[in-house]
From TrEMBL:
It comes from the Bacteria. InterPro entries: HypE (IPR011854), PurM-like_C_dom (IPR010918), PurM-like_C_sf (IPR036676), PurM-like_N (IPR016188), PurM-like_N_sf (IPR036921). This is Hydrogenase expression/formation protein HypE. Residues 62-173 form the PurM-like N-terminal domain. Residues 186-331 form the PurM-like C-terminal domain. It comes from Streptomyces antibioticus. Belongs to the HypE family.
């Protein structure tokens, strides 16, 4: 039997999971508006999208696919306000590069150029600025992308958190590649590239001084080469997403809603490291909602799923890739999980966020 139907990966412990949520009827911005969940979606759909308009924005993906001078480009921007600036496995500089490179990769594009804006708080040590800049430059070289332009602003002391970063990026989309949720059809196999929840728990452990018996390092990485390996098997992948804010649950819900299909998730098949599962159980968190910064989720036509999974596992960033579910024609727009106890639960889009400021 193929691994598409086996689902043989390490089980996870669900006890103690909760999903705290802010009220949705507040007249002012709350932290949850930046969490990648339902509040973020409402902010975009009710305020930003009507104000901006345009077909490119209407794609609402990790990056927009646009045509310019006959070339098909992917274009993305993101801001980074993580605290602390340095954490096990990376820094805000690594995040700024890898996050934007990954957004472009989710449209199948190899990142070519980045812009970088530094917003510095008055009083931050120049040595800290230098360390962040060096980390950013090293991450760009590793990802094979050039920082082509940038900007610097300084805000008064007390009006920032040391350093905020903004990066935007562009890259070419190869001919024949069309990655978007509208292409998902019932029967598509859902594959995740590795263990989930690692980045969010790593940030939480450092920020709050928590110890879980073993150091948890962020999974921050640029995924462009992994995507290229997958596309080399077939350009007919249907959609890719990097499950950052809102975690795997948010990414799957966004795809289900945009495609009009349902998603059935095999909860035991989701790879969650024991340290992450234990930390989430202690903190009352659900690993499905915890952010990642070096993982992707793919919806792949069933006939290509085994070959794509093998290619992912042959790549250093996809060794723990696993089949975790499928798209179905029932309960359209909804994600449900089959639990290890034999039951079924709805995996909703989170309202706000479990962990603040993780990217």
């Amino acid at each position: 039997m193929s691994e598409v139907t086996d689902h043989l990966v390490t089980p996870i412990a669900p006890e103690g999971w909760t999903c705290p949520a802010p009220l949705r009827d507040r007249p002012r911005v709350v932290m949850g508006h930046g969490g990648g969940g339902a509040l973020s979606a409402e902010l975009v759909q009710q305020i930003f999208a009507p104000a901006y308009g345009g077909e490119a924005l209407a794609q609402m993906g990790d990056a927009a696919a646009v045509t310019l001078g006959g070339a098909r480009l992917a274009f993305s921007t993101d801001s980074y306000v993580v605290r602390p600036l340095f954490f096990p496995g990376g820094s805000i500089g690594d995040l700024a590069v890898n996050g934007t490179v990954n957004d472009l990769a989710m449209r199948g594009a190899r990142a070519a150029y980045l812009s970088c804006g530094f917003i510095l708080e008055e009083g931050v040590e120049l040595d800290v600025v230098s360390r962040v800049a060096e980390a950013l430059g090293a991450a760009a070289r590793t990802a094979g992308v050039e920082v082509a332009t940038g900007d610097t602003k300084v805000v008064e002391s007390g009006h920032g958190d040391g350093i905020y970063l903004n990066t935007a990026g562009i890259g070419l989309v190869p001919t024949g590649v069309d990655l978007r949720p509208e292409r998902v059809v019932p029967g598509d196999v859902v594959i995740v590239s590795g263990a989930v929840g690692v980045h969010g728990v790593a940030i939480m452990s450092v920020r709050e001084g928590l110890e879980f018996g073993v150091e948890i390092e962020s999974d921050c990485a640029a995924l462009g080469s992994l995507v290229e390996a997958m596309l080399a098997v077939t350009p007919d992948l249907h959609v890719l997403r990097d499950p950052t804010r809102g975690g795997l649950a948010a990414a799957l819900n966004e795809i289900a809603q945009a495609s009009g299909t349902g998603v059935v998730l095999q909860e035991r098949a989701v790879p969650v490291p024991a340290a992450v599962a234990n930390a989430c159980a202690i903190l009352g968190l659900d690993p499905l909602y915890v952010a990642n910064e070096g993982k992707l989720v793919a919806f792949v036509p069933r006939e290509h799923a085994d070959a794509v999974l093998a290619a992912m596992r042959a790549h250093p960033l996809g060794r723990e890739a696993a089949v975790i579910g499928e798209a179905v024609d029932t309960h359209p727009g909804m994600v449900v999980a089959r639990t290890g106890l034999g039951g079924t639960r709805v995996v909703d889009l989170p309202i706000g966020e479990q962990l603040p400021r993780i990217c």
